[in-house]
Design brief:
Rossmann fold; 6 helices; 22% strand
Amino acid sequence: MDHPAAEIGVFGGSGFHSLLDEPVEVTIDTPYGAPSSPVMCGEIGGRKVAFLPRHGKEHQYPPHMVNYRANVYAMKELGVSQIIGPSACGSLQPHVKPGDFVICDQFVDRTWGRKDTFYDGPTTTHVSSADPYCPVMRAIAVEKARELGITVHDRGTVVVIQGPRFSTRSESKWFASQGWEVINMTQYPEGYLARELEICYCNISLITDHDAGAEGVEPVSNDEVVRVFAENNDKLKSLLYAMIPALPTYRDCVCSHALEGAAF
């Protein structure tokens, strides 16, 4: 099947289900099953873009049931070499406030049982994730956010929990005590799977709440997450529309060489 070529992919998260004007809908089958939805293809600033809501069009897939391998592989099939992964996140630190954006540079995986590699054998392949997010894309995201007047933190660690439940107060306090800034349910294995396919990946964490361990605030609720994300959707879209045309057409970052020396 002939698919429209795309250079740049965007995964939509909670409360973020559309991006493109008059997109072409493309259905893709992958060796890992069906993606969360058909992929919407179109253009932003002269760049060919593929958009896929990671939870499905009706938000029908909770975080632990998302077919991350199929979603990332579908992007690869379309020719995508750079992916932006916005996500609704909680804050673990007082200085990171609801409405802020965090461009993460590290993750900590606290999930279990997720299909998190394309390399199940027979060739053993170990891909480095020392610096899991593309440094080039991160720098552009920070620059464009600041130009738009968005409060942005230029680095941060996201701890990824299994979901669909939120953390207990004790868990949240433990994560905060480690100095981690952000908590989320979808950043692993999405970003790492992109690295396994030598696709650049940049996370934009939109802070919707303070997590349960924060003193003096009500524990996070789904209604609050959706409300704050909706309030900030215009900011996110403005950032994506500024960022996408600025992404390089030639790559020589760590992501583009991730498989060199990785296979035994």
